[in-house]
Amino acid sequence: MENYFLDNQDLQFTLNNLDIEEAVKLREHGFAFAKEYDHAPSDFKDALDSYNRVISVIGEICGENIESRSREVDLCGPHFENNTVTYHPLTQQNIADLSKAGVMGVMLPYQYGGLNYPVSVYTMMTEMVARADASLQNLFGLQDIAETISEFGTEEQKNKYLPGFATGEFDGSMDLTEPDSGSDLQSVRLRAHQDPKTGQWYLNGMKRFITNGCSKVHLVLARSEEGSGDGRGLSMFICEACPELVVRRIEDKMGIHGVATCELQYNNVPAELCGQRRRGLTRYVMSLMNGARIAISAQALGIAEAAFRLARKYASEREQFKKTIDQFPPVYEMLASMKTRITAARTLLYEATRVVDLRGVYTHLCDTLPADKMTQDIRDKQKYYNKLAALLTPMSKALSTEIANSVAYDGIQIHGGTGYMKDFNAERYARDARITNIYEGTTQLQIVAAIGGVMQRDGATRIKELMSLNYSGKLLRLRDKIAVMLEKHLKAIAYDTDKKDRAYHDLVATYLVENEIFIYVGLLMLRDALKDDAREALVERYILDAEPEFQKNYLKITSGDLTLIDSHRDVIDY
């Protein structure tokens, strides 16, 4: 019997060593919910036990049911006819299995039928679902829509929609992208107008590349302010599937075949304003994007885990020259690199979710506490975790998705010619991985999102904490290597700052963010090795691999060669 949690030692280690007690205690209102709800934990130990049990159940569903259905789902996909999308029967069964397990409202409050779990635990579930079937994660992972309504909607909207999301009766979509806007959401043109007599809002326009655009409930970014042309004229709306909301077509995609990606036409669709006018992009989509980055990081990590395990199994069974190919140094070097990169990505992802959990609870306190109970400490923590989340979530998405692509590619290489054939899942993992560093913001846009926090040193306090842990022996020597890298990194940042050249800064931003990731991840892996000696080999491999890449980036940043910009253009134009 396969269980995608119990067979993953690293995921179990992560859950049981993740420092989320503070966030859980605040989320559970000091565990007072236990007096009101039977399934609410009485303390953190009880909560951790609950997380382990539920994740194990989902791990079994993924390993026993979802994975075995994934090949047929990939082959057939959803059916589209007469503007109606019908999901494959096996996809429907997968959703039914997850709904029966009670995990369609993982993070929703108890009062709406949710489990009130932190983002970190939900992310582990999405990682396992993606390992079993990456396209299914695009359906299971849309719970951020319900979370947005929970955070910003009215009480009437919460009572109307959230119980349905928790049971799986409702599914959702984020309707953001338009045919001409792409990542430039400030240029969204779909129009929202309000009937002056009734107060009813109506939506008119087009959306494209909408994951699960055939859903029952839609969160829609629309232009509510007549004459506006930027993000300040956008608001968020909730609408439901209706005859006026037409699915014009579904995309024929390279991968992620099990989920429908839709083009939508809004013909005077009735809608409700969600939150305040004019804050659709500046607050609500930005909040959604944090969740989306985390979800796609987990999806990418799940695909990478699946690709690595399949490659390792194949290499241990495939014989050439009278021995299995995993005994050849070039092959086991690839496998070791794959494992190291996956562990590194997982380490950063769950550091990011820990921070997002803390950001969430302190933001909630700032929004809800009366003035006489608000303290400066709460305000300071909310500000700190907000900045740190804004740094770590794009760094995590950049790292996880690029690693997923490289691991999936290496998985095909280890399979040789058979990896190129549909007889093995290796080629599917490569097709599925390819979208992860594109949607919800390309890797290049993640660099744009992260570079401000790198330059402003928003992660400096956390890096100092990790640097000061009680290392000894090999771990101390590895920490000292990180210290040398950090010293150079700060010099590179100062060099770029002093140069005061915007074009040069934009050119070297990727190298600066990559080096920040090398330092941050190296320290996180050192921290974990303090708790488990067996992880020493992983962190040593990671840091030794990172050193030459870090140095190459450092030299590029500090070269000061402005002709690099022109030379890039010359190469393109040749």
Quick tags:
Butyryl-CoA Dehydrogenase, subunit A, domain 2, two-stranded antiparallel ribbon, Butyryl-CoA Dehydrogenase, subunit A, domain 3, Butyryl-Coa Dehydrogenase, subunit A, domain 1, single chain, 4 domains
Short characterization:
The protein is α+β, with helices and mostly antiparallel strands and 574 residues long.
Identify low-pLDDT runs: none
Shape: globular
Strand content: 5-15%
Average of per-residue pLDDT values:
94
Number of helices: 18
Rg result: 24 Å
Can you summarize the main beta sheet?
7 strands, mixed
Descriptive notes:
- The protein is an alpha+beta fold and 574 residues long.
- It folds into 4 domains: 170 residues, Butyryl-Coa Dehydrogenase, subunit A, domain 1 (Orthogonal Bundle); 107 residues, Beta Barrel (Butyryl-CoA Dehydrogenase, subunit A, domain 2), CATH 2.40.110.10; 174 residues, Butyryl-CoA Dehydrogenase, subunit A, domain 3 (Up-down Bundle), CATH 1.20.140; 115 residues, Acyl-CoA dehydrogenase, C-terminal domain (Four Helix Bundle (Hemerythrin (Met), subunit A), Up-down Bundle), CATH 1.20.120.470.
- The chain contains 18 helices and 11 strands.
- Strands 3, 4, 5, 6, 7, 8 and 9 form a 7-stranded mixed β-sheet that branches.
- Strand 10 and strand 11 form a beta hairpin.
- The longest helix is centred in the middle third of the chain and has 40 residues.
- The protein is globular and about 70 Å long.
- The relative contact order is 0.08.
- The mean pLDDT is 94.
